[in-house]
Please model this.
Amino acid sequence: MPRESRWVGVGREGSVAVSRSRYRQIQGELQLCETGTNFTVAEEGMFEGTSVSFVLSMIVGSGIDLVEISRIQQSVKRFGQRFLNRVYTPAEQAYCLRKRNSAESLAARFAAKEAGAKALGTGISHGVSWLEIEVVREPSGRPTIRFHGRAAEIARGLGVAHVALSITHTGSLSMASVVVEKLP
Model:
C-alpha cells in the first residue's frame, strides 16, 4: 500500500503536517476540513507516512530591539555597579564581564531583555522589570530567555512553552529578536 504524502502548512494557528485526506487546497492555501482553518502551503511531500506528523507551535508574541553598544558602555562607566545590578542578574554579569569586550555582551543582553518584554506584550517597566527577564545559555551554548516573577506569570498566562532568542552584534550595534510560542 503506497504511503500518503503530507503537506506542511503554516498559518495563524501554527505549523502543522496533515494528510491529503484531511484538507482541501484552495489557491495555494490549505484548509483543514474539520476546522476550516487556512494554512499557507510550505512544501509538498515534506513528510511521508500514514499519520499526522506533528503540530509544532503557535506564536503568541514577538519582539525585536536594537541597542548602541556605546550607550551601554557609557552607562556602565557613569553608573558602574548600580547600573549593572539594576539591569543584569549576577549570572549575566559574571558571563559578560569575563569577556574581552564586555560592552558588546551587555548590550546584546539589554536588547534581548527589551525584545523579551515586547514579546510578552508589556515592555520594560510596564509590567516587568529588567531582572525578571534573564538571558541564559542552554547546554548547547544557544542563548535563550528565562522569565522570573511577574514576567513568568505573564508568560504562563499566555501559555508560553518555548522562547526563541537570536542575538547578534557589530562593532557598534547589538540586536536581539525574541519569539514566544505555545503549544496548541
Remarks:
- The chain has two domains: 4-56, 59-182.
- The longest strand covers residues 38-49.
